[in-house]
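Predict the holo structure. Ligand: S-adenosylmethionine.
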Amino acid sequence: MSLADQFRNHFGHRDHLYGVMLAELADDLDAGGVTATIVASKHDATRADAIQLRLLAGIYRLVLRGGEPELAAFYPTLGGTRGPAEIWPVLRPVLANHLLELQAAIEHPPQTNEVGRSALLAIGLFEAARRHDLPRIRLLEPGASAGLNLNAAHYRVTGPDWAWGPVDSPLVLDTEAAGVHPVSVEIVEHRGCDIAPIDVTQPDAAAYLRSFVWPFDLPRDRRLQAALVVAQRHPPRVDRESASRWLARQLTAAPDGVLTVVWQSITAQYWPAQESARVREIVADARSRMPLAHLTMEGVPPAQLTGGYDVLAHGPRTELDGQVIARSHHHGPPVVLATA
Ligand SMILES: C[S@@+](CC[C@H](N)C(=O)[O-])C[C@H]1O[C@@H](n2cnc3c(N)ncnc32)[C@H](O)[C@@H]1O
């Protein structure tokens, strides 16, 4: 499939801002316009490279910086109210004025960190603490991105008949999960790793993370911004390392009286072959030395991951030591419990 068709087919409609933008960019690419100049080095890119998402994020970052007010008028997250149909005459000169920056932007693979998943993490922590009768938890997260889910204990998570976390948290995750019984867990240590960690203490980190969220998905953008406020007070620690290498070191020993929880969400599909199997081996080996729970929220069980499947079609499920404890929409809440 040509790059222009990858752009055009990504949404395949003009019903929202990004549908229109990708249709216009695809036509411009076919016509040899400014878009063709921006993506000139990427004609061999595959669908998995998602060049179109890289470019949309690069454009969004220009808008987030505040220098393109006319274009910002199309971005709902920035208060924009203009319908997308007329965007091209405004967008085209912005592309032409920022060629080098956009060429650099398409070198960055999409990078997200969805804090809605902390609701699933919280439910899993309750269940793990109950099963092990150990409420003091050391939380380890491979594939943590910016590590925003490591701050789960600073978020308020609620269901129809329960609530957990500080009442004054800037981030409240409302779920549909009924019958959850929170346990007063204490996270005594938390740490993550990622092959491309984002350091939230860096000035551009917030805009970088926001730029990969659809600018018309207001709830998701608000969740992220609230989590970033929390992260300024509690910067997560995320080491630059691959999942299996990092876990092997983290799981050599554990403090007494503490339950180690290895948590991972929507990351194993990006891991190279053998990484999931290696992580399972390391976790299994560590169980003989320490109380340990393995909590996963992946599209399909990590054991079956071979790559190239559609997470959305499968619907992520949260598993504790291989047993499904919750199902959810892709980004996290609302949560629908399948089993307890
Ligand atoms: C879709 S993001 C999910 C991030 C976070 N777990 C969440 O749920 O918001 C996938 C993350 O996996 C990371 N990743 C990919 N391969 C990895 C590997 N081999 N080891 C560790 N992290 C990896 C990526 O850099 C990216 O930050």
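Residues 301-313 have pLDDT under 50 and may be disordered. The first helix runs from residue 3 to 11.
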